[in-house]
Every structure is written in C-alpha cells, then in structure tokens.
Specification:
CATH class of the largest domain in chain A: Alpha Beta
Radius of gyration of chain B: 26 Å
Shape of chain B: globular
Distance between the termini of chain B: 74 Å
Radius of gyration of chain A: 27 Å
CATH architecture of the largest domain in chain A: 2-Layer Sandwich
Distance between the termini of chain A: 73 Å
Number of helices of chain A: 3
Number of helices of chain B: 15
Strand order of the largest sheet of chain B: 2-3
Structural class of chain B: mainly alpha
CATH topology of the largest domain in chain A: Alpha-Beta Plaits
Oligomer: heterodimer
Strand order of the largest sheet of chain A: 3-4-6-7-8
Strand content of chain A: 15-25%
Number of domains of chain A: 2
Largest interface: A-B, 37 and 46 residues
Order of helices and strands of chain B: HHEHHHHHHHHEEHHHHH
Helix content of chain A: 10-25%
Helix content of chain B: 55-70%
Number of strands of chain B: 3
Number of strands of chain A: 8
Largest sheet of chain A: 5 strands, antiparallel
Shape of chain A: elongated
Structural class of chain A: alpha+beta
Number of domains of chain B: 2
C-alpha cells in the first residue's frame, strides 16, 4: 500500500474482492454438472460403439465379420441341412467380448440389411468371470446372447452383471 | 445430430439421418441428454427437472424452518412451566436454593454442549455442500438418504473408531492435553451468549470481555499441539497461528469497542437490548432497525473489521496460514488422528459458530426482527437465522479466496485493520459527542 494512492488501493481491493464473491455466488446457483451415475446416466452419442449385439434371424453366416475382425473375437458355424449341404443360416455364433476392441469393422463388413452384428449404446459391459465374456447365440437367442456356464454345463442369460440400456438403438438398415 | 447434418458430405448426412435417436426403455434411472451437457444445461437450468426439484427443496426447507420456529415458539411456554414445576418439586423436597441452581445450571450446560457438539456436524455438512455447489459438484449425496445429511455423523463415528496415534518423539502429555486446551475455551465461551430474550446460560455483566478472554486461551492449545508433535511443520504451524491469532485479536477486540461505547455495557443481553427499535418510529414508519451495523460509517467499518478478524481468528481461508495444507501439511494437527483430531475440528467449527453468534448479537441486533411486522417470529429464531447467514458468509469466503501470504497477513492486520479500528473508535467518540 503506497502512500500516494492509499484509498485507491483500498477501493480496488474491495471491488476485486466483491467481484470474486460474485463469481462464486453465481456458480453456487448453477446446476451441478455431476451425473449421479447409477440413478442418472448420460445418453451416448448415436455413433457410440458399445457392446456387440447379434441377430441370428437375419444372419447369412457368410463369415465376413469374422474375417474383418482384427482381434479374432468372432467365431461362427453355418447350419447344414439333412444332405450335409450348408444353409445360409448360422448354427451358432460366438463373440469374445474380452477380445473385442470395439472398432466396428464387423459391423461395417456385415452385408445384410439390417445389419446382423452391430454395436449397441451400452457402455456398462462389466464381468465378474472370464467365462462371462464369451457370448453365444443360436437361432432363437435374443440380441444380447447367452453365456456358457462351465459349472452348470449350460447356457444362461447374462442379466445379473450387465445392464442393457437399449437393444436395437443403433442398428443400421 | 445437428453436427453431422452440417457436414457437406451427403453420404454422412444420409447415414446420420438413418441413425435412429437412442431409445432407452429399461431401468429406473434418469437419462441425461449428452449434447446438452453442461453448456446448454447452464444456459437454461430451469429446464432440468433436478434443478427445479432442488429449488423446490430449498424453498421447502426455508418454509419448514420458519414453521418449526413458530411451532417451537408456541411450545416454549411449556419449558417455563417445566421450570416452575421443577423448582416447586425441589422446594418440596427441601433442597437448598444452591442445589436447585446446580440442577438448572446442569440442564443449561447440557443444552449448550448439545449445540456445541451438533453444530459442527451440521456446519461441516453444509460447508461440504456449499463448497461442492460453488465448484459445480453435489458434495455428499448418499449417506443418510437425503443429500448425504448423515455424512458428517458417519465421518465422526469413523474418527472415533480410528487408532489414536502419538508420534514416538512427541511430548506425550502435552500432545494429549492440546486438543482439550483448544476445545474447552471455545466451549466455555458459549456461556454468556444471549440466544434470545432471556435465553443465556450465564447472563454475566462482563460477557464480552469473558468471551474474548476465553477465545484467547485457545491459541495455547494450538501452540501446544504444534510444539508437542515433534514435527517441524506442526511447529511452524503452531508458531504461525500464535503470531496470527494474537495479532488479529487486537483489531477484533477494538472493532467491538464502538459497540460497547454505544451500548454502554459489556453485557451481551444489554448490548442486544440497546439495538431494539427502529429508526423513524417517531414519524410513524420503521425505516431501518436500530442495529449497530446500520450506524453510518462506524457500524459498517467495525462490522467489516470484526468479520475479517473473526475469519482470521478461526483459522479459516483466506487466513488459514496455521493449517495451510499445501505448505504445512495442515500444520498443527498433522500428527493428530482419531478423536483428538476431531476435537480440534470441533474447536474450529465451534469458534466459527461463536464468532457468528457474536456478530449477530453485536451488529445485527441479536433477536430483534428487521421489520416490525416480522416480530411474530420468536427472537431466538431471528438470532439463529442471522447467525446462519453469517456462517454462510464464512463458508462463502472460504471457497472464494486464495490463502494469503504470511507477511501480507501480518501487514494487513497491523498496518491496515488495527489503525482503522483505532480510527473507528475515534469516529464513534465523535458520534457520542455530537
């Protein structure tokens, strides 16, 4: 505080103090930007690549998705009729979500309309066991697929560990 | 979708048009729009349901508080009846008057200690909420269901259960005594505070002096803690706090002198009584209450000096040099854990509440209503709401200003606040002469 502009210093200091207080006062009454996660969720953008979903009814078992996949997470086998001839339908289809790197190449490679394999908007892909990462589909399995339970030796629905937000949200025709 | 539609490529626009809007059907959660977050949300917050809910909740809390005050004001005569019954019963048992006084005093002390213990719990929760909302966060939201209102209680319980560590080289007795020495003066200083008309635990004539003497003692506890911790940062914190608290006690005390001059008494209830009434009452309308803060120049000056010095006295930002986290690893209570640490915490928040109560009774007219038609709300409710507003100011200042440098802190006290408080006393003398 110089002697020359003593009162000016006091004045500017007070004004700046009040300005600072006004800033915090304004922000106090702005809504908080926190998302209260399990109760509130942010909707992903439409182009978001979440968990892979699969439709066994439209699939023609061409295997392009398996070829396109850089991490080799897709395996499938086509169905055979009585004469041993291959039919354009999948016998089974399996996806290892533990290997999947969410690149979307399988979705791009899929020739059917609408796409038979596509990324949903689900970002809550969490597993408690490695075996749960493997998704299996048969002809009548829903989009989400089933998981193989190695202890019970049977397929079960993945519902305890995974919350699906929407099933057909981003399925390009 | 708007970003993709603006792109010149027609195929991109086509594919964007083919992309359906996300549909979310499952789950009990609220879905928040991604693109509106947070800029559009801030532009029009009232569109947000949870913002509307929050505003309604605040209004509801205010109404609830007023209603509760009125209700307790209705019930309050029961306490007088209880008091009379108690006196009568003890008289019939043949107890001597000092014994009766002891029982009644114990009840009052229990009430005050209850306030002293519960107030920090509420204020800490409130502080966490205020700080969070200033920083666009929510703060505690889970514990206790309603906006995390039990968070501080849970934290207190955790502190009680934690291990009580004494450093190996610590002066163990001083280390053990320090929290008590810091806490007890802050607790004892609550005695003469007049919470409303005829609502003070000890209506002593030298109330003001007593309070300042007692809050002065708590420096000793902080010094002891700094010394006994056998830690150079704690010692530095203790020394800084000694310098700071002793310095700021002077302007704080001198800022009250004009009030004492106008009121002509050191008794807190008499100071409050001197602020009853309104200016312009003689002309048939109430312009302003006769609070000391509304005395031109002198009142505002002494209020501001007292406010700043109180913030410094309670070791709060921007004057929290003794416990500067980034410089001194929280200073004098670095080596304290568990219940001892919580005692320091309680002492700090108790001192803060005390200075707010003091400001409310010195400058804001204690329990007097701001306008005559608001007199139906009981005096203690006015007093407490003024104190609550001041507590809010404390929290607000804490989360607005950065910490001051040590030498500037001392400069500010000795070269600015103290001369102005002297000048203020001179102004008050001029007022009384004219």
């Amino acid at each position: 505080m110089n002697d020359s502009n003593y009162f000016k210093t006091i004045w500017t200091a007070s004004v700046n103090t009040l300005k600072g207080l006004y800033v915090t006062w304004r922000y106090l009454f702005k809504p908080a930007i926190t998302v209260q996660y399990p109760e509130e969720k942010l909707a992903p953008y439409p182009a978001f690549r979440g968990t892979l979903l699969f439709d066994a009814k439209t699939c023609i078992a061409c295997g392009l998705c398996a070829k396109a996949c850089p991490s080799e997470c897709i395996t499938l086998e086509s169905r055979k009729d009585g004469a041993g001839k291959r039919v354009p339908k999948p016998e089974w289809y399996a996806l290892d979500l533990g290997k999947c790197n969410y690149c979307g190449l399988c979705e791009e490679a899929c020739p059917t309309k609408p796409r038979s394999v596509w990324h949903s908007l689900d970002y809550e892909v969490a597993f408690s066991e490695r075996s749960e990462m493997l998704r299996c589909w048969k002809s009548d399995t829903p989009f989400l697929g089933e998981i193989w339970d190695p202890k019970a030796k049977k397929l079960k629905k993945p519902k305890t560990h995974l919350q699906v937000q929407s099933v057909p949200a981003r399925r390009m025709p | 979708m708007s970003e993709t539609e603006k792109t010149p490529s027609s195929s991109a626009a086509k594919s964007a048009a083919l992309l359906p809007e996300p549909v979310f059907t499952e789950g009990p959660w609220v879905l928040l729009p991604h693109r509106a977050w947070p800029t559009e949300m801030w532009a029009s917050p009232w569109k947000l349901p949870r913002y509307r809910r929050g505003a309604m909740m605040l209004a509801g809390l205010l109404l609830l508080g007023t209603g509760a005050a009125l209700l307790i004001g209705e019930i309050a005569p029961w306490a007088d009846m209880l008091h009379a019954r108690l006196m009568l019963a003890m008289a019939t048992f043949g107890l001597p008057p000092p014994a009766v006084m002891c029982v009644w005093g114990a009840l009052q002390i229990a009430l005050l200690i209850g306030i002293f213990i519960l107030a920090p719990v509420v204020i800490v929760w409130w502080e966490r909420k205020i700080s969070a909302h200033i920083q666009s966060r929510f703060g505690p939201m889970r514990t206790g269901g309603f906006h995390g209102w039990l968070q501080t209680a849970a934290d207190g319980l955790k502190l009680l259960l934690k291990e009580n560590i004494t450093p190996q080289h610590a002066d163990s007795w001083v280390h053990r005594l320090a929290p008590a020495v810091a806490l007890v003066p802050a607790l004892v200083a609550f005695a003469p505070v007049s919470f409303g008309q005829e609502l003070s635990a000890a209506d002593i004539d030298i109330g003001t002096l007593y309070i300042f003497a007692m809050t002065g003692v708590s420096v000793l506890g902080i010094m002891m803690a700094g010394w006994a911790s056998a830690n150079k940062y704690s010692l530095l914190g203790g020394l800084r706090s000694a310098a700071q608290l002793v310095s700021y006690e002077l302007p704080r005390t001198f800022a009250v002198v004009p009030v004492l001059m106008f009121a002509g008494s050191l008794n807190l209830s008499q100071i409050v009584a001197a602020q009853q009434g309104y200016w312009g009452e003689g002309y048939g309308f109430a312009l302003l209450p006769r609070w000391f803060i509304f005395y031109p120049v002198v009142g505002q000056l002494s209020f501001i000096i007292f406010l700043i010095a109180s913030i410094a006295e309670t070791n709060r930002t921007p004057f929290d040099i003794p416990e500067a986290e980034s410089e001194l690893v929280s200073g004098f209570h670095t080596e304290y854990s568990g219940i001892k640490f919580s005692l320091f915490f309680m002492a700090e928040y108790g001192a803060m509440l005390l200075s707010c109560l003091l400001m409310a009774s010195f400058f804001l007219g204690g329990g007097s209503a701001p306008l005559p038609f608001l007199r139906f709300i009981p005096s203690w409710a006015w007093f407490l709401s003024k104190a609550v507003v001041l507590v809010f100011c404390f929290l607000w200042f804490r989360w607005t200003f950065p910490r001051m440098r040590v030498d500037r802190l001392m400069d500010f006290c000795w070269k600015f606040l103290l001369p102005w408080s002297f000048a203020n006393i001179a102004f008050a003398g001029l007022y009384l002469l004219l």
